């Protein structure tokens, strides 16, 4: 199970911290990622934490930071310098691969948390 929290509304340039609480699988050996879905668009992978390191999409690089706590089974995403185009539902997801690949296949994802960036 994956349960996200921490979404909300923020002005452009603002920050948010999203959290994901995980259970039901071996967290420390898993590939976990954050993906988002903007209105009218498909699911977009933005950041992942894998056994071989962390990776970011171009849209997230330099503005978002992904972190995990294997003792607490939590995955966080710190969002900085938010832009209106970051408005989306953000999902925490368990990937099929524990290592980074360019093809992201999700075994499971949470219910999502809404992030709205607007002035």
Q: Could you characterize the architecture of this molecule?
A:
The structure is a single chain. This protein has 119 residues and is mostly beta strands. Helix content is 0%, strand content 51%. The chain has no helices and eleven strands. Strands 2, 4, 5, 6, 9, 10 and 11 form a seven-stranded mixed sheet that branches. Strands 1-3-8-7 form a four-stranded antiparallel sheet, with no helix packed on it. A hairpin with a 2-residue loop joins β5 and β6 (53-56). The model has no long low-confidence stretch (mean pLDDT 96).
Q: Determine Rg (CA atoms, Å).
A: 13 Å
Q: Indicate the structural class.
A: mainly beta
Overall residue-averaged pLDDT value: 96
Distance between the termini: 34 Å
Strand percent estimate: over 45%
Output the keywords:
about 0% helix; mainly beta; seven-stranded mixed sheet; four-stranded antiparallel sheet; 11 strands; about 120 residues
SSE blueprint:
Blueprint: E1 2-5, E2 8-10, E3 16-22, E4 32-37, E5 43-50, E6 53-56, E7 64-69, E8 74-79, E9 88-95, E10 106-109, E11 113-117
Parallel strand pairs: 2-11
Antiparallel strand pairs: 1-3, 3-8, 4-5, 4-9, 5-6, 7-8, 9-10, 9-11
Describe the structure concisely for a colleague.
The chain is an all-beta fold. The protein has no helices and 11 strands.
């Amino acid at each position: 199970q994956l349960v996200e929290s921490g979404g909300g509304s923020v002005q452009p340039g603002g920050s948010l911290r999203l959290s994901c609480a995980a259970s039901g699988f071996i967290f420390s050996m898993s590939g976990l990622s954050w993906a988002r879905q903007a209105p009218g668009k498909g699911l977009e992978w933005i950041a992942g934490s894998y056994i071989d390191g962390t990776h970011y999409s171009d849209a997230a690089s330099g503005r978002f930071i992904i972190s995990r706590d294997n003792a607490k089974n939590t995955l966080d995403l710190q969002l900085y310098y938010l832009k209106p185009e970051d408005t989306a539902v953000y999902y925490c997801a368990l990937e099929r691969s524990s290592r980074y690949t360019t093809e992201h296949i999700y075994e499971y994802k949470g219910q999502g948390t809404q992030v709205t960036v607007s002035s």
